[in-house]
Each structure stands twice: as C-alpha cells, then as structure tokens.
Amino acid sequence: MNHININGKIIPLEDAGIPIDNGAFRYGYGLFETLLIQDGAIRLKQYHWDRLFAGMKQLYFEIPALMTHEWLESQVLATVKKNKLEKLSRVRLQVFAAGGGLYSSGSRQPDFVIECFPLEAETIAINEHGLVAGIATGINKSTDALSNLKSCNALIYAIAARQAKEHKWNDALICNTNGNIIESTLANIFWIKDSVVYTPPLSEGCVAGVMRRNIMEKILVKEKNLTVNELLQADEVFLTNSIKMIKWVSSINDMRYTNAVIRNLHKLL
Question: Does the pLDDT value for residue 214 go beyond 70?
C-alpha cells in the first residue's frame, strides 16, 4: 500500500496523519468494514453498507448528505485503483468520531480512513489444512446493544489473539458472559451436526458478520446457543468472514472435525 484515503483525500502513506484527539484513538469510538475487492468490485457491498450505516446511526453520528453508499464506494475504488490493487485486495474502511471534547461533547461528524492491502488467491480458497483453534480464557464478551457492531474497540479480540499465538493456535474462540461460544477473534462460527448447519444468534453477542448474513440467506441455518460441550460433539466446524470466506476448523482441544459439507458450501458461495 503506497497511498491512503483520509476524508476523501488520497495521499502518500508517508504523509498520512490523524489528530491524536480523535474518538477512535481516545475511546475506541468508531466502526470499520473489511471489504474484499475482486476484479475491481466490492463483494457483498450492500451488506457492508447496510451494516455500516446502521452502526453509524446507532453510535449517534451525524452522517453528511454527501456520505452515501455510492460516494463511499467511489472513494474505496479510487483508493484501490491508486494503489493498483483492483485484481484482489483487502480494504479497511474505518469511520470514527472526529476530535475534540469528552465522550458527549466531541464532534458527531464522522471522519474516515481507507486503507488497502494485497491478497493472495489462496486467501479466499478453501483451506486444505484445517485450522487449529482453542477457547480463550479470562475474557468474556457482553451481550448488550453494541455487541453486534464491528467497532474500533477490539481489545477483547486482541487479547484472545495473543492467547492463540501463545498456544500456537490459528485462532481463538470467544465466549460471552453466559459461557457460550459466540465467535472467534476474526470470524463468525458455524457448526454442523447430523447435516444440520447451526450458528449462534445475534442475541448471544457475536458480530453481525456480512458473510454470516450471506450464508443464512442462501441455505437453511438454525440459530442456537453454542455450549462448549455441544461444540466438542459437532461433526464439522467452520469460521466465516468477508475476506477469508469459509475456513474449515480441523481441531479444537483434542476433538477432530471433518469437512465434507463445508467443501460443498464453499463451492455454493
């Protein structure tokens, strides 16, 4: 990445800067979308815009008239083109509270940053070697009105990721305050038992993932609370997000999982 977009201005990365009193830096006050760019287009773009704009409304942002779905799409694609990454890339679009004031007195105007990064084709392919996952300990996510947002406040995920690295897992699973598994550090979780596909409901506190939504609009998925015991009795387990799409989990603790249904699902998507 050689160029970055800050509030509609594409500039060289080395010249980029944001005031230190911005809401994301001080309070984690903001949202982000991680977009997959493929052949010059944003995959699942409407799902991303639906989630982003609903989240901005929930966070009391005053959205400028100029900041429409179409305008943001043009900003994303212009940034990707400037970096010559139209073929396949990952874009992080972050909106956040502008600087000034404390919690309630700061600006309600959203600033934004667009970054883009190259991707390898294997990123979106089914993984031939399954992921090894474990369950994060000592941290639990709440099930409140903000839990489903893809917010800039990601401390719980950062700590879980450190635990994954420490234990040599590919990813760590996160539990809510009721002790149920709800997601991983990077993805929503699904499991399969007797050919039935399940995923935790949003009321359990997981992020409202766009790939989660895409899957649930294409196939029959039952929403159900996921206990540790139920997870260990599953036939197949997979993780989903907008960049890596579907990734097979081969083992959690000492339990091994197959991937026959997962492979067919990946072909469908």
Answer: yes
| pLDDT in the model for residue 138 | 97
Residue 125 belongs to some domain of the structure: no
Q: Which domain does 73 fall in, by range?
A: 3-119
Q: What is the pLDDT of residue 266?
A: 85
Query: Do 60 and 85 sit in the same domain of this protein?
Result: yes
What pTM, to 2 d.p., does this model score?
A: 0.93
3-state DSSP of the chain: CCEEEECCEEEEHHHCCCCCCCHHHHHCCEEEEEEEEECCEECCHHHHHHHHHHHHHHCCCCCCCCCCHHHHHHHHHHHHHHCCCCCEEEEEEEEEECCCCCCCCCCCCEEEEEEEEECCHHHHCCCCCCEEEEEEEEEEECCCCCCCCCECCCHHHHHHHHHHHHHCCCEEEEEECCCCEEEECCCEEEEEECCEEEECCHHHCCCCCHHHHHHHHHCCEEECCECHHHHHCCCEEEEEECCCEEEEEEEECCEECCCHHHHHHHHHC
- Mark which of 119, 149, 169 sits at the end of a domain: 119
Tens-digit pLDDT profile for residues 109-147: 899 999 999 999 999 988 989 999 999 999 999 999 999
The number of folded domains in the chain is 2
Read off the CATH number of the domain in which 252 is found.
3.20.10.10
Residue 195 lies inside a defined structural domain of this protein: yes
Question: Per-residue confidence at 106, pLDDT binned at 50, 70, 90?
Answer: low
Residues 151 and 90 grouped into a single domain: no
Q: What percent of the chain has pLDDT over 90?
A: 84
Give a yes or no: residue 124 inside a domain: no
Residue 29, pLDDT above cutoff 70: yes
Same domain membership, residue 61 and residue 102: yes
